[in-house]
Specification:
Layout (H helix, E strand, L loop, with lengths): L12 H10 L6 H8 L8 H19 L12 H21 L1 H19 L12
Helix pairs in contact: 3-4, 3-5, 4-5
Length: 128
């Protein structure tokens, strides 16, 4: 159908139906299209936690102030990880420089989030 409800030139309901049934192309085209459009694997809870904690740790380290954990999109448990990571990163930045602090943030965020989610998603409410 066109914008105003009319038919599009050259297309009929039968033609559209046949095209849909046959896969609109060469033999095997539908199968190849389905295989190439497979969705990527989902990000694990631990990977998501590590990514968001590392991001906000860098923001806090650069700004010097903490925000509200809910405005950051963190759970209470993730916020605890963030505070521990930032404390360690501040010490590393003072003694070893910014590059060392940056590496520490990635390492600690990954390790703490992997530990937190080792048995799946923690229970105890949405804030945990």
């Amino acid at each position: 159908m066109g914008r105003r409800g009319g038919t599009l030139p050259g297309l009929s309901a039968v033609g559209i139906g046949l095209a849909l049934l046959t896969g609109c192309g060469a033999p095997g085209a539908a199968e190849r299209a389905a295989a190439s459009s497979a969705s990527p694997s989902a990000t694990s809870a631990a990977e998501l936690c590590a990514t968001i904690v590392a991001h906000w740790s860098r923001e806090v380290l650069d700004s010097g102030t903490y925000g509200d954990y809910q405005s950051m999109g963190l759970s209470n448990g993730q916020y605890e990880i963030l505070r521990d990571v930032v404390d360690a990163a501040r010490a590393a930045k003072r003694s070893q420089g910014a590059a060392a602090a940056d590496q520490l943030i990635d390492r600690r965020s990954h390790a703490a989030c992997t530990e937190r989610y080792r048995h799946g998603v923690p229970t105890g409410g949405p804030w945990q």
